[in-house]
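User: Can you write out an input/output pair for a complex, sequences first and structure second?

Assistant: Here is one pair. Inputs:
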Amino acid sequence: MLREYTGADENDSIRWTKVSEMMDGKPSFLRKSDWMVQSSKQKYIFLAFCLVPTFIMFCIFTLYPLFSGLYYSFFDWSGASANREFVGFDNYVRLFNDAIIPRTIIHDYFLVATKIIGIMIMALFFAVALTQLKIKEAPFYRIVFFFPNIMSVVVIGILWTFIYNPSMGLVNSGLEFLGLESLARPWLGSETWALPSLVLPSIWAGIGLFLLMLMGGISNISKSYYEAAEIDGATEWQQFWKVTLPLIWPQIKISVLYIIITTLNGSFILVQVMTGGGPNNATHVMGSYLYQQAFEQYNFGYGATIGVMILVLSLITVLFFQFLMRREKVEY
Amino acid sequence: MRRTVGQMLGRTGIRIPLILWTIAVLYPIIWMFIGSFKSNAEIYRNPWGLPETFNWQNFADAWTNYNIDTSVFNSLIVTVIGAILTLAMAIPTAYAIERINFRGSRFLFTLYISAMMIPMVLGWIPLFFLLMELNLLDNIYGLAIVYAVSQLPFTIFVLTSFMSTIPKSLEESAAMDGMSPYMVLWKIITPLSMSGIITVTIMNTIQFWNEYFMALIFLQSSENYTLALAIDFISSEAQYTNAWGTLFASLVIAIVPVIILYAIFQRRIAKGMTEGAIKG
């Protein structure tokens, strides 16, 4: 889906020409130029050796579960095969009448929105700072900021649960230190504050990757644009808006789409570790609610229905944002 | 005038947010290490300060009383087998898609790649029952297989783009000399794509070592717990046992291998992840 930009990469464009050559014209295995001078039977055996075992595994452990998940969503099923009952669209009716579902959706999109805003502003700021303003120790910052990206969500979640701990936590101790005891609260235990509290760890853990992506974009911008802008009397702020931002728009777009996908498909992991969906469903997102329905309450059919909803919503969201952020490629 | 103010801000003021964020990233991690050397009483008394004495008791406790040793071993097995299996499946397929002309190769590639964007949560429910049927539920080898297949799309994706940079003349001359395609794949392509293979393997290793949710669903008995599950278990227990020191020690055990890999392969990891995200 994001492949439209790969044309910029030399290797890939070579590859795609090769593929497109192959797609038109006669079956390519008849071509003399093919390096394998051998009978087509041998070639098929080799091809089968390369492709078939992997593809079978992929079908069994990826395609089949996805499609049968779709199928399960039409059943009422508590796990034992004997009492699996076809119920048609009942699960979907239940989905639309379940008061918790709209909340999980809102929570998910709240996380998507706050993560996009928080991560993009901070990553852009840091990326410009580290590339444009010749800072000697820039590699140090880059290495440090990226590290949380490869930490396990469990470690991140537990660490931040501690930071928010009402009595020992860093946040409340810090507020006390600053004389703001009145602001201290049980962050993860509060229905109002639990969900916003999950945003900070997500930004903390996510920023590095997008920082690197944006830095890559900025360092590809030719210095001559900035020189030209400088001659025209543009301030650094104007340069940022008129030169940097339009030229790294592709990287920004990919980053935003990537945040959307990873949040809708993965925010529940942090939720599961930090709050388990509580207090009183205040932090349940679609994925954690699916886990609760399917694997804690054994409503597997209904769980699958939630899964279908996640799939549909994330596809719609990605397509919508691709449409929203489409922009003519800028060239000066 | 505006320019000079901007530049002054730019050169010196810019470091303030950079340094603040560095502290925000490093302090919790360093604090976790410090906490792992403190006694529980000390953690309560002085949660964010330095320990009075360094003691390894927490590590010993975690290792023996909380069966972290078994979990580390399980995690190691899952990680190593998962990583090897991923390569065994991905290298031949990447090679065939990249270098052999056959009908449907583009379709196959697109199919693998689009699986990167699909939320797998939906698939986990049927997968649970499938593993049960295959007697692979609550089994670390079953988990390793699931992990390996889950990283197939990403691995194929990175490897095809690496293999496309290998000059074709090498394979051609090897084939001229009568080398079979199997040997070309094994003796020429695999060594020449080693850089790509190392990159994806490091990424997959970190991924498998860290993974939590699939392990949570597909493993049940505590003797099969991977490290992530064991830590989660200690964490939920700690509310009652107050064994915070042990919890920190186990977090440290989980994070040290990742830190070591990052220290050695920092560039590769950063590059691999950004490229995976950009092209995926």
